[in-house]
Each structure stands twice: as structure tokens, then as C-alpha cells.
Amino acid sequence: MRASVLSSLLVLSAACTPAERILAPIAEHAQAPHHNLPAGEQSVYRWTDPGAWPDGAVPATGSDVVIPADRHVLLDSPAPLAMRRITILGTLEFLDDRDHALAARTIEVHGALIIGRRERRFTHRARLTMTGSAAENSVFGAGGKGIVVIGGTLELHGQPVTAWTRLGSHARAGDATLVLDRESGWRAGDRLAVSSTSFDPTESELVEVQSVAGKGVRLTRPLTHSHWGALQQIAGRTLDERAEVGLLTRNVVIEGDEGSAASGYGAQVMIHPGSVAHVEGVEFHRVGQRGALGRYPLHWHLARETEGHYARENAVWQSYNRCMTIHGTHGVTLERNVCYDHEGHGFFLEDGIEHGNVLAGNLGMRTRTPSPATRLLETDERPATFWVTNPDNDLHDNVAAGSDGFGIWYAMPTHPTGLSATTAIWPRHVPLARFENNTAHSNVQSGLWVDEGIDAQGRLDIAWYEPRMSDGENAPEPAIFRGLVAWKNQALGAWFRGSHLHLEGAVLADNMSGVSFGADHALLDNSFIVGVSENVGVNPRAWVPVRGFWFYDGPVGVRRTTFANFDARAGANASALGFNPVNPWPISAENWVDQVTFVDAVPMMFEAVVHGLDATKSALVVDRDGSLTGAANSVLVPDAPLLRGGCAQRASWRAWSCGSPFTQLTVRADRRIPDAIVVQRYGDVSTTVRVAPVRYDSSFATLTVPLDAALELRSPGDPPSTLIFTSSAMTASAMLDLSLPELRDVIEVMLARDRSGRTIRRVPWSESAGCVDCWSVRDGGVGARLRVRSEADAQELTVTVRRAAGSAMSDATPAEQAVRRGARD
Predict the structure, then answer these.
(1) Domain carrying residue 230
(2) In a domain, 648, yes or no
(3) Tens of pLDDT, residues 39-68
(4) Which of 152, 215, 334, 756 maximizes the CB count within 10 A of its CB?
């Protein structure tokens, strides 16, 4: 009766859909032990013993099999078995006396399925083949062509293996031998996957072992592609771009039948709440069900707290839908697994609620983009080998070796989505648990991508990651990404969007560009960045300038970092430092470098100043210690007339070196700025620079301007009633001197966000050129000027200018005006 009820529930369910039901009652397994193995009350029988079966007959081929709760059945059949449905209420254990083969359309585990044990790994070969088409298996619902663990125990323990290693020397196209960096213990007949070491992820390849002698592996056929296999010494540092070689063969196999490849309907394993799963040394082949939500090779499904669950030293290859999925589950360890040739995201943390999981030492390669019709998420258009939706998970020593999209993608939603939806959790504010010594190479997109996430409607949006302390203070807590190695990525080695994000101890080489932060209070520290190495390849995006570090947004800093080989060998337009070449957005005036080193590298290159690209007109870098320019606290600016006055030219960098300070000036208005604002040095009509308003809100614009220089600022159209000027990082010695020639009828100027509480006094126009903390209006009422200085170094200095006509003050009642004046005073 119990089997019938649970099977009916399974048929009515649709995994990972909004209408899904959880198959095991929550209360039943709230205090689940570390295993669900029977306590010894079961009677032990062999499969071939008629007495093992309630009807006294050994199950016939194609029949439905139920193992009663009081039976422990040992699979001992000398011949392959093929069943329809197997329901395990008791225990089914593969007897380790010979090779075994068992086929079925579905296996439901309410008791225990055992192939080997942790303390005694299975030594023979065990093959579980899941059969049937989607149409034929429709009656099985979520369990079609799968092993579904529903409050039971899954113990799969194949032989220990060397899951993956690296080449010890180069392997050229046409070679039939691999030399590894260690002895592997691999055998004749084993299948291996060799990663790409170029910009092209399709240059990974599947090979078969003919023989093994020490570190040498003879193959049954020659290699199609060349694979890099040597360490490089550059600028006194070691660069490792050797190919990874993963073992795909295991002695315990879960596979889809031979029809799986044509249909994309492969085998699956699903772990439900209240279950226990320990899976190691298993080969998953022809797995996953293309385009089907929740039908993945190995899948923890809403299992919640699962401390002690693990998948170790397994191989997943030829998957039609992901690799390993952790969905609404916490505490799983995925360790030293190999995933090769899969569609969509690979190692997949699904909803954004998942936390406390460990992904360590896994190797993923050849991540493919699914067809538009079979993509489960919009993000599968750019699939990631590792897709992480909550930063409270431990990722270390993993390798993402070749994807049609990203290597590692932190795609954090605002709140968890799908079946885990809740507004109580904010993944974009969760502190980073651990990111250490992960590698990403040969990806079409960037190696590491910390940006974008899925919203509640399944749409992709920009994700600003701003981790905060969990002590109630809500203060920023820097997220430190340590030890990233990223090379031969067609885009960036790494990209970050957010606040208080650090990349430390990174090694980045042969990428289009090394790293960039679309962030503030971000830092690249103690890292090594190489423009081009001896592992020469053809970058499909060769028209893009090669940069080691792109400055973008900010403030962002680069500290204690060495740049090497950013010279002619990397391309005519290569440099260690630079700016996003097609950036229409304004950029911070506080970006900086400190203790940077250049070896065979052009240190800096500014982009040509281009109309419409604000960054080319506003970009600058502060050299704190002089390691970039030779002069501490000097500022490098582009060849923009507004910025370069009084500076020394560095023509080869398209830069000017300046001693005077600069600021990022934000101009806000109480109405739309119709086109642009124009800034020029006072009285110098030849140095006009147009700065377009920020695209998504044309009521304000941001630009970089020199301090201690008299500036004119104009805006076309009817002047607004209120203008607010905010200047960042004002020093006590610097003066903001603005002339507003089109402004008229100014009635007040107010200073705010300054600790001194000073007022701005009005002076006659004739005194405006020499006063401090003053404002004036030209005779005739057209044109205003203000000159203001911070008494002490300030993060921001804000000045508000109000006009009489249409101003907020003039529109207020007398009582309101009195209240506002009192607040200002």
C-alpha cells in the first residue's frame, strides 16, 4: 500500500515546476539521521532466491518489482536484468562477487539502494541502465528514466580513482601519446577528456587509452588539436596554462540507453527531502533530459538541510541538461568530480537560497549553449560551467575549462526565486563564504563574472553585489575573491559589479583584458597579470585593445600588482592599464594605483577622446606612490582640453601628467537637462567639452573637472529653478570655482554635507574672482559665480543654487519659507 501511494504521488508531481509537490512529508524527516539504512530487522535474501519474493517467484524480465520493507535483497544474478519499475521499500544491494547489469525504466528508493560502502568500495563493475522514451515513460512522471530517492538512502561507492590531472608536457595535434604530470593509475580502455588550451572551447577532445606506462598514456587514435603542457616563467613568476585531463570511466555506471543520444532523453538521479545520498566513483553517461525542468544527471531537489551528503570523484559526460544540481538544499559537498560535454549551466545552484554547500576540486569542460527551444533559463544562452546564485557557498580549487559562455558566474537574484521564493533573504547582500584558487580558461565570455541575476519573473537583470555584515549594523563587509587563475578567455579574465569587492592573489594571462570592476570601493591586490605568454593563440576578438586592467566606475584601486608582456607581442594597442574603450558612462575621479610594477609592458594607455563616450573625457588615475609616473600623487588624464591645462604630455600613452587635483562633479537639476552641459576653462573658448547627461536620468550629469581652475558651465534650454553641485573628495586646499553665465535671478546659495556648517556669503560681482566661500550675480542679473572650498578633507561637498523664478522657495508659503530658512540656519 505504501509503495502504491508514494508512486501515485510521484506520477502526479512535476519536478521543479510551480505546481510541484514535495514527495516526503517534512515532519517525517525533520530529524533525519546521517543514513537511512535499516537497523538490522530485515531478512537477507539473494535476488535469485524465489523465497526473497512475496509470490515465491523470481521477477521476470520487464516486470514491476517491489522489494518489501522487511527484505534486504542482494543482487547476485549472473545475467543482465531488465525490469520495468523497481520500488525499493527495503534494501537492494549489489553483491560484490561479479559484474552486474540492471536496466529499468524507473527506480524508486524509499528504503536503500547500495552499491559498495564507504568502508568497502565496490570492486567489480556495476551498470545501471535507465531505459525508455519520454512518451513511453510518461506514466512515471518525475521518475521517468531515473533513480528517485524519496526519503531513502543512496549509497554508491565505486573504486577510488585519480579523477583528473594535468599534462606534464606539450601534446601536439597528431600525437598519439599524452605525458601527464603524475602517474594516474588509469588503464587500457579508459576514456579521457583533454581540455582546450586555446581561446576555443571546442578544442577539448575525447580520447581512449590504449596503454599506460608510468606518466605516459598511449591513445587509440591521434589527437585532433594541440594542447599546452608546460609551465612558464615570466617576470620571476610561474604561469600554469597546462591542459587538464579528466578520467570519464568508472566501475559503477549510471547511464541512459543507446537511444538517449538521438532523443536527448537521458538518465537522471533525484534526491528528495529526508533522503541520504553518498555518491562516489560513479560514471554518469548519456544523462539529463533536454529541455525538461528538474531532469538533471544528479540533482538534490528541495532536500533542505543535508549535512554529510556528498558526490565525490564522479564523472558526468554527454549530458543533455546540466551536470550536478543543488536546488533548495544546504550542506552538500561536490568534490573532485569531472563534468564533460554538457548543455546549459553545469554545476548549478538553482534558486539563490542554497547555502553552506562546498564545491571543491571539480573540473568542468565543454559547456554548450542549448538550442533556444530547450533553454530552461534566459541565462543558458551564455551558460556557465559553475553557476552560483548565493555567495554563502564554498568554492575552491575548481576548474572551468571551456564554455560557450562563462567559466564561473555569480548570478545573484534580489531574492531567491522559483520554489524557494522568499523576500527574507537578499543574496546580493550576503557575505562571500569562500572563493579561493579557482581557475577559468578557454571561455567564450569572461572567466569569472560577478553580475546579473534572475528576477522573480525569470528575466535577467543587472546585479549590484554589495555584501554586508550580518551583525545588525548592516555595514559593508568586503568580499575577497582569492587566488583566481584566468587565462585564454575571449573577454575578461574577471568582471565584478558591486561595492567593496576585492580580487587578491590573482594570476590572469592571455585574456582580451585581465579584469575590470563596474564597482566602487573595489580593489585588485597582490596579483600578476600577463598580456601574452608563449602559449600563443588567435583571439577572435583581436580588434579590442589588450589591457591588463580596465578602470571603470570607481573609486577602484590597483595595489602591489605586477604587469608583464603588455608590449608589441600582445598587439600594437596593448597596455597594462587602461579604460573601457567604448564607455558612454562617467567615471570616478578617485581611481588610483599604488606599488605597481611593469615588466616589458606599456604602463598606461588612454583611449582617444571621442564625442559621446564620457569616459574618454573624464578618465583619470591618481598615482599614489609614483610607481606609475615617477611622481607621487601625480594624476594622469587623457588628451582632453578641459583636463590637461598646465600638465606635461606623455604622448606614447595618449596621456598628460598633472600635479593639480581633480574632482568628480555631479550637476543635478529640478527639471530635465534637454541635451547636454558644456564645461570650459573660464574665458578659454577653445577648450569646450560637451558632457552628456547620464542616460537613465537626464536630470543630472557627472563629469571630471580640475580644481583650482575657473570653469564655465552651460546648459541649453530654459535654466532650471534649482541646481545642485556635488564635488567628490574635496581637499582642504582645493577650490571649486564655477561660473554659470546663463543663470539669472539667483536668490540663495546653500552649502551642505560639510562638517563646518559654514554659510556661503554673497559678494559684489567685482569681488567674485578673489573671494572664498562666496557667490555673486553679474550686474544685470544674468550670470552667477560661486567659489567654495572645504575646510577639511571631505568625502563630498554639495552646493545648492536657487533661482527666484519658479524656484522651490518662491513657490512656498511664507510659513514654509520660514521653516526652511530655520533648517538651513
Answers:
(1) 164-247
(2) yes
(3) 567 899 999 999 999 999 999 999 999 999
(4) 334
